[in-house]
Fold Glucosamine-6-phosphate deaminase.
Amino acid sequence: MRIIRAKDYKDMSRKAANIISAQVILKPDSVLGLATGSSPIGTYEQLVKWYEKDDLDFADVTTVNLDEYYGMKPENDQSYHYFMHDHFFDHVNIDPSRINLPNGMEPDEKKECARYDAVLRSVGDVDIQLLGIGRNGHIGFNEPDDCFAKGTHCVELTESTIEANKRFFVSEDEVPRRAYSMGIHTIMTAKKVLVVASGEDKAWAIRESCFGPVTPKVPGSILQLHNDAIVIADEAALSLCGDFL
Ligand SMILES: N[C@@H]1[C@@H](O)[C@H](O)[C@@H](COP(=O)(O)O)O[C@@H]1O
């Protein structure tokens, strides 16, 4: 696991966008695993800027997203489908037929998990998986658990995640309680994993994920076993790692 120290959110975002753009330049038909949340927004903004300057071409890129809220219509502005279009897809020349996300509107969990796993198999290896991290160390929506989930699954969100995500909703009651998420095994098969973390509220998750025991109680800790995992974290997110760096 490589840890790259960033000055602040902007610096973190530029560093992450640099790694993704190098990937797309070197391999124009890359498969990008994409993430939502406030952490990667700056990365998408930077990629869009470079695209607008004609420095990047996404025409042959395929994307797979980590997760989606269960029961959420894609046109709902809190859906991850909406988020991805709003922050990235609608601003670059990505082919809509190469965009893949879990379908939150499929009520049959078994069916949707099997469908999305088949999609993931059909696109082949993910070249770079971008990840944010939850305050409790969750990645995608793989919440702390007794074991690591393998493939796509439907998750009950923890109180800590509901609490953290309520800032995006009018009231806590509106925060969905369940979500579809790519599994840990799928995340671990990506050729490269890129975690972006900013702010003090991520400090515990970053310390435990990078230097704590590898345990499903802190899902991000499994990334210590990945052979090409990069964590780009700002000073605040690294503030509890002092003794280890
Ligand atoms: N499913 C997403 C995660 O993919 C994201 O990493 C996490 C942290 O979000 P933020 O970056 O807004 O702190 O939030 C959600 O739970």
